[in-house]
Amino acid sequence: KAGVTQTPRYLIKTRGQQVTLSCSPISGHRSVSWYQQTPGQGLQFLFEYFSETQRNKGNFPGRFSGRQFSNSRSEMNVSTLELGDSALYLCASFIRTSGIGEQFFGPGTRLTVL
Amino acid sequence: GENVEQHPSTLSVQEGDSAVIKCTYSDSASNYFPWYKQELGKGPQLIIDIRSNVGEKKDQRIAVTLNKTAKHFSLHITETQPEDSAVYFCAAYRNDYKLSFGAGTTVTVRA
């Protein structure tokens, strides 16, 4: 079974631009979560989507948004990029079994904002 | 919300020795505790997990223990090998569809 895929793997943008990242979950998984990873803040939860609906949201400004399509693929958008948005953005495919949520991560998209 | 603390932040061990990483959590409603290993340039990989109704779980050279009363859980790696060098993250989950992560432990196995 193929794992979580994320595209692109690397991005370089300048301040003020916007960016869209894509994530395809493991086949059959209907939930996708997004995390931001930085050296200073560690892994921070952005949001989670299930069946095209945002089910949970972290403490990030409105510049960070996402959506999920009917095939469970998800996109994350960051508008008006700031230098501090430079990070590794991770997508996790989530499956709930016996009341427990197991998450499997993709390789991430490395975003650099200049 | 859930707060997960992880110690130590760095750990250097001699090949063949054991490594132990400890985490504490704040929310007694958390019921699932996965551990992830992240190698350079890759996403975190789930290596072992434990549910709140279990006290210990072992998978070859790695084991995890959970003390619900004290709200702490630990990762044990025995007979460490160079390929165990990575960053390890603990996490806690409490049925709200998101994981709360510890800050990570950088493990270096010296040959």
Description:
The complex is a heterodimer of chains A (114) and B (111). Helix content of chain A is 0%, strand content 59%. Chain A has no helices and eleven strands. In chain A, strand 4 and strand 5 form a beta hairpin. Chain A starts with a strand and ends with a strand. Chain B has 111 residues and is mainly beta. Helix content of chain B is 0%, strand content 57%. Chain B has no helices and eleven strands. In chain B, strands 2, 4, 5, 9, 10 and 11 form a six-stranded mixed β-sheet that branches. In chain B, strands 1-3-8-7-6 form a five-stranded antiparallel β-sheet, with no helix packed on it. At the A-B interface, strand 5, strand 9 and strand 10 of A face strand 4, strand 5 and strand 10 of B.
List the helices and strands and how they pair.
The complex is a heterodimer of chains A (114) and B (111).
Chain A: E1 5-7, E2 10-13, E3 19-24, E4 31-38, E5 42-50, E6 53-57, E7 64-68, E8 74-78, E9 87-97, E10 100-105, E11 109-113
Chain B: E1 4-7, E2 10-14, E3 19-25, E4 32-38, E5 45-51, E6 56-59, E7 62-67, E8 72-77, E9 86-93, E10 99-101, E11 105-110
Parallel strand pairs in B: 2-11
Antiparallel strand pairs in B: 1-3, 3-8, 4-5, 4-9, 6-7, 7-8, 9-10, 9-11
Structural class determined from secondary elements of chain B: mainly beta
For this structure, the quaternary state is heterodimer
- Beta strand count of chain B: 11
Q: Helical residue percent of chain A?
A: under 10%
Number of distinct helices of chain A? 0
Strand content of chain B: over 45%
> What is the tally of helical segments of chain B?
0
Contiguous uncertain segments of 5+ residues of chain A: none
Intertermini distance of chain A: 37 Å
Order of helices and strands of chain B: EEEEEEEEEEE
The largest pleated sheet of chain B is described as: 6 strands, mixed
* Strand residues, percent of chain A: over 45%
Gross geometry of chain B: globular
